[in-house]
């Protein structure tokens, strides 16, 4: 029997549509100097909207210093880097960026990747596969890139309950004390906005002889006096063996990285397939990221403004009866609890009010916890917030969605 491949593909997409989980991309054009305003090209013609769900958390993707650094590098070095880092693809901006990131996290070395996803996947899979008889302990809500890295390592793994220190210790006790161990977790969990038990996990790592691996992608640039993340804010960076971060969120460009010891970074550089066989970051991108990291190290006031905006939006949602979910961070999730209604609310906010916020459905979050995820920036002013509250109140009433208890 011959398989109808095209029908198979269409049927699988149809399954997503029937569940209300099919994703439709909005065709956006960001407006330089007017962030968070953008032009929507899928509205029956160009229409201006306000973006409320960008991971460019601080608007650095449009900061004049970042743009100028990229223009200058493009004029002096050209577009591409010329290959992988091993084959003519190491540019001086890569070296400078790695030095800056190592300094940011107080580590001897850093290694830059094309994305945070590749940084996680490559680092965890490389260490896990080559460290003899190792076992990785992973928080159950770790990002897909960490899960993929652990899976590709083909080493043993144990999944502990989210942020559950007791559950992790129970598992550690069951393992041979001499066996190599890695505890992998995040700082800010981006869908719920809660924060990992960093100090407690470090204590367990000391007690049971484990390496610590932290994903700070939703925290770098935004927490700590210099923007090194939650571990910096809590004075714990020196206790983390491997700190992974991104250049695509608060730093506003693209790329990922790890920081740690010189030996560890050199090991991943030398053995990691995802690093060895990937073309290197364009020099202009590295230059923009370098300018962003340098700027945010010296401007803590931007982080303070960001936190104020997030706390203000949480308060205003609560006062309006909108069911904002508990969050310890800048992430502001609003519970809908139904995939179809979640997408409908998102669609109507965009079409009727010019407000863009993406629906977050399964498998990104568990079924029944579908939500709208807002990420206010320092550039979302009070007038924009007024418009958002009015629109959300109207949508909640129109769709008969549950109000806050």
User: Biggest sheet: strands, sense, closure?
Assistant: 7 strands, mixed
Gyration radius (Cα, Å) is 22 Å
Tell me the total number of β-strands.
14
Report the principal-axis shape: globular
Helices and strands, in order, run as: HEEEHHEHEHEHEHEHEEHHHHEHEEEH
SS content category? alpha/beta
Q: Tell me the fraction of residues in β-strands, as a range.
A: 15-25%
Low-confidence stretches: none
What would you call the quaternary organization?
single chain
Helix content: 40-55%
Distance between the termini: 56 Å
Question: How many H/I helical runs?
Answer: 14
Q: For the residues shown, what is the average pLDDT?
A: 96
Strand arrangement, largest sheet?
A: 4-10-9-8-7-5-6
């Amino acid at each position: 029997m011959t398989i109808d491949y095209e029908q198979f593909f269409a049927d699988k997409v149809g399954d997503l549509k029937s569940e209300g989980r099919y994703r439709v991309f909005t065709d956006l054009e960001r407006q330089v100097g007017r962030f968070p305003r953008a032009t929507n090209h899928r509205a029956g013609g160009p229409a201006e909207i306000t973006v409320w769900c960008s991971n460019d958390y601080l608007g650095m993707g449009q900061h004049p210093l970042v743009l100028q650094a990229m223009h200058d590098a493009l004029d002096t070095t050209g577009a591409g880097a010329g290959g992988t880092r091993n084959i003519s693809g190491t540019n001086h901006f890569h070296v400078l960026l790695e030095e800056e990131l190592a300094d940011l996290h107080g580590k001897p070395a850093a290694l830059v990747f094309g994305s945070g996803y590749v940084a996680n996947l490559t680092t965890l899979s490389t260490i896990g596969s080559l460290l003899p008889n190792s076992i990785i302990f992973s928080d159950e809500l770790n990002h897909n890139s960490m899960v993929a890295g652990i899976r590709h390592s083909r080493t043993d793994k144990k999944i502990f309950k989210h942020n559950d220190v007791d559950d992790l210790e129970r598992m550690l006790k069951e393992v041979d004390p001499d066996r190599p161990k890695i505890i992998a977790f995040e700082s800010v969990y981006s869908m719920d906005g809660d924060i990992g038990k960093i100090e407690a996990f470090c204590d367990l790592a000391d007690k049971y002889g484990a390496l610590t691996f932290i994903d700070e992608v939703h925290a770098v640039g935004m927490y700590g006096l210099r923007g090194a993340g939650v571990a910096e804010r809590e004075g714990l960076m020196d206790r983390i063996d491997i700190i992974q971060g991104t250049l695509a969120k608060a730093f506003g460009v693209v790329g990922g990285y790890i920081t740690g010891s010189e030996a560890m970074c050199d090991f991943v550089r030398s053995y990691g397939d995802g690093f060895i066989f990937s073309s290197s970051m364009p020099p202009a991108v590295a230059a923009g990221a370098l300018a962003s990291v340098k700027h945010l190290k010296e401007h803590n006031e931007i982080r303070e403004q960001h936190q104020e905006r997030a706390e203000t939006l949480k308060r205003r949602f609560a006062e309006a009866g909108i069911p904002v979910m508990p969050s310890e961070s800048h992430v502001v999730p609003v519970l809908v609890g139904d995939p179809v209604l979640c997408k409908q609310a998102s669609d109507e906010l965009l079409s009727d009010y010019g407000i863009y916020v993406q629906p977050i459905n399964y498998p990104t979050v568990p079924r029944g916890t579908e939500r709208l995820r807002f990420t206010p920036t320092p550039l979302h002013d009070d007038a924009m917030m007024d418009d958002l509250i009015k629109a959300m109140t109207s949508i909640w009433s129109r769709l008969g969605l549950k109000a806050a208890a």
